[in-house]
Amino acid sequence: MAVEDPRPPLPKLAVIARAAGVSVATVSKTLNGRSDVSAHTRRLITEVLERHGYPRHRPKPVKGSMVDVMLQGLGSAYALAILEGVEDAAWRLGVDVVVSAVVNRTRHGQPPPAWLDRISVRDTAGVLFVRTSPTATQRMWLTDRGIPAVIVEPRRNDQPLPVVVATNRAGARAATEHLIGLSHERIAIVTGRPGVPAAVERRAGYRQAMTAAGLKADPRWEVCGYFQMDGALQATRALLDALPEPPTAVFACSDAMALGVYQALGEHGLRVPDDVSVVGFDDSLAAEYATPALTTVRQPWPELGRTALTALLADRPRARTEVPTVLVVRSSTAPA
Q: What long-range pairs does 312-315 form, CB within 8 A, spacing at least 24?
């Protein structure tokens, strides 16, 4: 006795083509990993195939299906988390990824000149710059060859390239509003490196929240920690030594700096959160395991990577794409 297969038959290519708004031939090329299908069309067809029950598959590597990712370094949690998102999107879009790290320590973390020699020998579909950016010469080289580029969390604002960033201003405002909601008024801020867009936006969000609440953002409460734990430690020590009475709360613009704030407060006999509440920014692994666990703003690192790669392979990426942050409340904040 024959047993019927309960699964409905997969739709014919014509049905897929009609749903995707392309020809049957284009669907067939996509399934066979042909190179003469744009990344945007390939992604569209793949999504339709998945909706209609076709098994998820990774297309064969094809000419022009490789993207380059240039990072400031590989030794940080954010780099690995962003790469996780890039890899997830690459699998879905059917492209391969080549990862490079900036080895020269220039002020703005620009790729070395030799990088162009390496990229010229492969048929790259685009370049993602993560917290680094090309020089004017490198940008012109990419433009002349029709190679698109997108920057994730730029270190400078003078790049005429599409950027993908977290909602730094909104996240900082949410962090400050959380402290204000706990009746804090003397709220200090430890800012990041001057001129870096993320640092500028986070300080602006802090100031907006203070102003909206009718509180004075005292310049004496603003110190710079350069996004480093030791920098924040030194800055917070100086802040506490200079003020007649300590702030009741501190917003540190990174988790690393928040840990420096913890240490400085402890040196001055102040407890977190009994005497001073502290909020960070990133939601790194250290935030959860700090003592007390750190209230912080979660950066959407994997989503930044996914969004950036999708934008890179789009026909017309937006000039600026923002990915939402989320406030994570833990034990380092309490009512004033």
A: 312/67, 312/125, 312/126, 312/127, 312/128, 312/148, 312/149, 312/150, 313/39, 313/40, 313/43, 313/67, 313/93, 313/95, 313/125, 313/126, 313/148, 314/39, 314/40, 315/38, 315/40
